[in-house]
Amino acid sequence: MAGSILFFFLSLLLLVFPLPQTITSFVLWNYCHTDANYTTNSSFRSNLDFLLSSLSSPSTAAAGFLITAVGSQPPFRVNGLALCRGDVSSSSCQTCLASAAVEIINNCPNGTRSTICYDDCLLRYSNESFFSVVDTSLQLLAFNVNNATFPNGIGDSIIESLIVSLTVQAFNSPRFFATGTVNISTFQRLYGLVQCTRDLLPEGCYSCLRDMVALLPRCCDSKQGGRVYSQSCFLRFESYPFYHLSAVGAPSGGKSNSSGRRILFIAISVAASLLLLCAIFIYRRRTKATTQRRKLLTAKFKHEDQHEIKGAESLLFDLEAIRIATDNFSDRNKLGEGGFGPVYKGTLENGEHVAVKRLSRNSGQGLDELKNEVFLVAKLRHRNLVRLLGCCLESEEKLLVYNYLANTSLDKFLFDNSKREKLDWARRFKIIEGISRGLLYLHEDSPLKIIHRDLKASNILLDANMDPKISDFGLAKLFGADETQGNTKRIAGTFGYMAPEYTLHGLFSVKSDVYSYGVLILEILTGQKNSGYRGSEYPIELVTHMVWRHWTQGNVLQVIDQDLVEQCQTQQISRCIHIGLLCVQQDPIQRPTMANVVFMLNNHFVGLPTPSAPAFLSNSNTTSESNGIPRRENSNGSKGILMKISENNVSVSVLEPR
User: Which of the following is catalytic: 454, 467, 472, 513?
Assistant: First the structure.
């Protein structure tokens, strides 16, 4: 099934001797996507044949890598990737790729997407573009059937340390490839190898390999060897030199006299013993620290959450490590501040950049939000959702640690005149589409059914490629499979983005997120904030006045950011405005689902229904309490006035708590 995670455990009987240079590569795994097929005599098949011949050519083997595409238009366009292991020769690489080009057709007849992996090479093709995208949706694990004899389990931590060290080396390598060794004891040595496909960005390679490292305990604890694969990266470790030492520049053994060999043996023995003692000390220290953090976590969370604490332990960070990474939460590392608290940029000891969200100590609801975010986001994996690395609960500190995204949040570009020009139409549409796919995953495709409840421009983070990542799940609500809506007395969120049924009556559903998404679309297209736009004598909401008024008058392009109009994409822009207005309709039933939104965005020839008037179009149709002023609690638990209009209709105040 597309997007699903497949765990395939292989038991491989491996020889405990170095692999000879002439070893024949064999198929490790083959994946064939069967949701769509092509016909034998179609243009897709002819394009695929041409692609495979290019991917298995001598020039590809000489470079060890190639990405290319054949065909100008879908559905006949086919994209392909070939990668050889960094230590194999060009002749072995070509032999492997030639076999792969034949077997990938035999093993996946008429399939529009397939991946085949040999010991020496990987070949992949698809009717959808996958270049530069980290893909860990398919995960395959293999292990050496022989058990290791590591003292007190120390070897497992050394294995992880070796692979993490190689991950950093691969991050800094132009080939995204690294090998290395480490002593486990006087007579035991460990060999490791990691590699990524070279179409990724360095940050993507690092992220992919760290995901693979996290899978090692599932297959390979106390084993003499193991492998973890995805379609974007892979790793392997063994107790023997399984890769070609000469190809990776390993020093060759030279002649020396008996005395020199004795001195070298003694030095190595002493160093290995010291390393072992250090490893034992570190292991015991970490075990003690983990126990203390577990007790702390147990004390912080409620009893009904205990079954989830085991899953959260692997996400725990040391406070001291975060203090060092952020220079003790220095102001010069401060990225911004939201309703949760300040966010800081940090650099971990391994060089990884992170963003640390620090809960304000005076926030009464902060612990609930942190717990919600840890337990929810840690279970989610999607390219359009921010990735949570872990949390910290020490010394009254409550911290969340995320991947650092260089371009921070969407609002920093969208509402800044000097930066907005960087958001051309192609980037804005990619952001609109990416957010829709992230929400669709939350609503329908994730293991959990989640309502975000606080979707807004500042909660959309942008990576180095300007791809959107939905963040801030502190207010998210988890639904059961059969639940469709919820009710709450604590209304928390941001004015201008909240649906009317939620603002006035505490009712929320997937259609509440759809409303917020519609507001985001219109903000992205106009470059204007929804709340507090001064288009008349007093502040008004963008959705309920400016866009709708121009839409009904037939001149909606006048309200769009004119830099977009000048790019001559008026038909696609008008369609996005139409979809945005469908999302912000007063009646939740009339709003489309996110599945419908994704379909409408990607099928430009499908007709769209006519939208009805947006919510809060006029004050006359706004439900209120007895005093005529709708009220609700903001995210800090205090009362806030949504809108107060005096008798002469000229005084308006708008409050934004987040």
Answer: 454
